[in-house]
TrEMBL record:
An annotated GO cellular component: plasma membrane
Residue ranges annotated for the ABC transporter domain, each copy included: 7-270
Similarity field: Belongs to the ABC transporter superfamily.
Record's bilayer topology term: Peripheral membrane protein
InterPro entries membership: AAA+_ATPase (IPR003593), ABC_transp_ATP-bind (IPR050319), ABC_transporter-like_ATP-bd (IPR003439), ABC_transporter-like_CS (IPR017871), Oligopep_ABC_C (IPR013563), P-loop_NTPase (IPR027417)
Keywords for this protein: ATP-binding, Nucleotide-binding, Transport
Source species of the chain: Roseospira goensis
Protein name: Peptide/nickel transport system ATP-binding protein
């Protein structure tokens, strides 16, 4: 990576405590010894994202992608570790509550999978898009909020003539464009897109992915693009970060990752990607169930599903080590090669 990091994650962890439900509390009164459990949703994650870069964050459901995205966007505080933005520790910046905190809060925006759930159904598009710029005084003196909203709508391919409509009056793809417009309206520099096209039909997905790329070029945006689907990030990302059960297992420039995946988990994920070169591979689901993050396997979390697992993998967590230019992988096999 050549660009200076805009975002840097250093040993970031996020734990959630799963509190006892009513039945479990009753059972405890009757003598059971059920204890609160801790989910290690994100487990010592480190990587950076350069200014103007698109980093794809990929892994199966429950591996902690959304949680990490929310930590980056400042929605969840991390339990441990540091998040640096423009080389400033975000925890300190946010505690300050001054102009720098506001710059971070507006500068890093999140776009969600389900625009319908994230858009207030009682607000017209004009207010959904215009509310934050109005509150934060982002509209230049001498121009109107309506003009501001019209500009943002045009930028995402929405006709401003429809700004008095409500979200339910739009299609799924258009609603996602409203979500993108709402994020862009505060002039962000970093977008965290969490499964932002997963709910859309394939043809609409392609249009929205193109929009993201156009916006990147026009506005010099940086992206953390979260998806369970490697094929979604293939044409979009400069680099890909692969997560498994809360941990990063591999980081690589996108072409290198697709040409020669290093980690057995990445190899298994790639086996599932339908290729567009006509030589469509047979669909081979990854062997075994994803273990529970409440009780992850010791050693390498992937070892119960790994075809190459060795004794060491069952007891020792593999460190992330360089495996080529700009590449890291956390697999004991690399020590035996
Ligand atoms: N607020 C929360 N409270 C308790 N546990 C949580 C919370 N948010 C996430 N988790 C747990 O953390 C783990 C990681 O969840 P997360 O949603 O980050 O994964 P994901 O990879 O984004 O999966 P998906 O694509 O299914 O959302 C899961 O076991 C999930 O149940």
């Amino acid at each position: 990576m050549t660009a200076a990091p805009l975002l840097r994650l250093e040993d970031v962890s996020k734990r959630f405590v799963k509190h006892l439900d009513f039945a479990e509390k009753i059972a405890n009164r009757l003598g059971a010894h059920i204890r609160e459990q801790v989910v290690h949703a994100v487990d010592h994650v480190s990587f950076d994202v350069g200014q103007g870069e698109v980093v794809g964050l990929v892994g199966e459901s429950g591996c902690g992608k959304s949680t990490l995205g929310r930590v980056v966007a400042g929605i969840h505080p991390q339990s441990d570790g540091h998040v640096y933005y423009r080389d400033r520790d975000v925890a300190a910046v946010r505690a300050g509550e001054g102009a720098e905190a506001k710059r971070y809060a507006l500068g890093v925006q999140m776009i969600f999978q389900d625009p319908f759930a994230s858009l207030n159904p009682r607000l017209r598009v004009r207010d959904i898009v215009g509310e934050a710029p109005r509150v934060h005084g982002l509209v230049d003196e001498g121009s109107s909020l309506d003009d501001y909203v019209d500009d943002v709508m045009r930028r995402v391919g929405l006709d401003p003539a429809f700004k008095r409509r409500y979200p339910h009056q739009f299609s799924g793809g258009q609603r996602q464009r409203i979500g993108i417009a709402r994020a862009l309206a505060v002039k962000p520099e970093f977008l965290v897109c969490d499964e932002a096209v997963a709910a859309l039909d394939v043809s609409i997905q392609a249009q929205v992915l193109n929009l993201f790329m156009d916006l990147r070029a026009d506005l010099d945006l940086t992206y953390l693009f979260i998806s369970h689907d490697l094929s979604v990030v293939e044409h979009l990302s400069d680099r890909v970060v692969i997560m498994y059960l809360g941990r990063v297992v591999e980081i690589a420039p996108t072409p290198d990752l697709f040409a020669a995946p290093n980690h057995p988990y990445t190899q298994a994920l790639l086996e599932q990607v339908p290729r567009i070169d006509g030589r469509k591979k047979a669909f081979t689901p990854i062997k075994g169930e994803i273990p529970s993050p409440l009780d992850p396997p010791p050693g390498c979390h992937f070892h119960p599903r790994c075809p190459h697992a060795m004794d060491r993998c069952r007891v020792e967590r593999p460190a992330s080590k360089p495996v080529g230019a700009g590449r890291l992988s956390a697999c004991h096999l690399n020590d035996t090669a």
